[in-house]
Specification:
By secondary structure, the chain is an alpha/beta fold. It is built from seven helices and six strands, in the order E-H-H-E-H-E-H-E-H-H-E-E-H. The protein has a single domain, classed as 3-Layer(aba) Sandwich (Undecaprenyl pyrophosphate synthetase), CATH 3.40.1180.10. The relative contact order is 0.19. Bound molecules: farnesyl diphosphate.
């Protein structure tokens, strides 16, 4: 199973539905997050193998800090276990790991585990896997504006490129496709600046059930879209029906 069409350069995913997946079977929410980590592995491997260059996963939002402390702690422990357990898979698949977000909010041990994995995978050439942690799109824009104001003279006119250059990872291209699982249809503060022209894809599949075949379906759907970026394209079937 693999795409027989060009794949987008950057796919970003809002991984939703872990809690519902666990509840469906009468399990604790943590079991859902553990199931979610399995999905992360399969999707990461498939994306790297199929030529996606950037995969960004919304792993812990700013809003997630408001969950019960026991769930926050369990998610952080799961993340540390994942980083340890998956290092080999990341290296074998040429995947470079990068964390984005207000990483200063994370416990020192989690920051250390992330920094270690980033360093060990730094030479990965196939794909960059970005984990958005303690991440919020509005907070990212605000943090960028604060940096800009601290760095540049206040009378300078600020351009889009200036702000883009002070976001958490300026080397990250804008996502082409944003996928959200579990039936909700919103961005929930994810990549608000970068997703301006992203194609959105929603599926009812709960994240722990999401596997490479679901990713393939999303990529196929994306491949069939016409991206106009606000322009009128020549030979656009929607504008020139007879030319299609
Ligand atoms: C949303 O499900 C998911 C999260 C808040 C966390 C995402 C975390 C994982 C997939 C765990 C593993 C990740 C890594 C990188 C190891 P939810 O709990 O909001 O589900 P619900 O809406 O059904 O309650």
């Amino acid at each position: 199973m693999k795409p027989d069409f060009p794949v987008p350069e950057h796919v970003a995913i809002i991984m939703d539905g872990n809690g519902r997946w666990a509840r469906r079977s009468g399990w604790l929410r943590l079991r859902g997050h553990e199931g979610g980590a399995e999905a992360v592995r399969d999707v990461t491997e498939a994306a790297a193998e199929w030529g996606v260059k950037h995969l960004t996963l919304y792993a812990f939002s700013m809003e997630n800090w408001q969950r019960p402390q026991a769930e926050v702690d369990a998610l952080m422990r799961l993340l540390q276990r994942y980083l340890k357990k998956e290092l080999r898979t990341l290296l074998d698949n040429g995947v470079r790991l990068q964390a984005i977000g207000r990483l200063q909010d994370l416990k020192a041990s989690v920051r250390q585990a992330l920094a270690d994995t980033e360093a060990k995978t730094a030479h990965g050439k196939a794909m960059t896997l970005r984990l958005a942690l303690s991440y919020g799109g509005r907070q990212e824009i605000l943090d960028g504006i604060r940096r800009l104001l601290a760095e540049s003279p206040p009378d300078r006119s600020i351009q889009q490129e200036d702000l883009a250059a002070v976001l958490y990872d300026p080397s990250m291209p804008d996502p082409d496709l944003v996928i959200r699982t579990a039936g909700e249809q919103r961005l929930s503060n994810f990549l608000l600046w970068q997703a301006s022209y992203a194609e959105l894809y929603f599926t009812d599949v709960l994240w722990p059930d999401f596997r490479r075949q679901h990713l393939l379906a999303a990529l196929k759907d994306y491949h069939g879209r016409v991206r106009r970026f606000g322009k009128v394209l020549e030979n656009d079937p929607a504008v020139h029906p007879s030319s299609s």
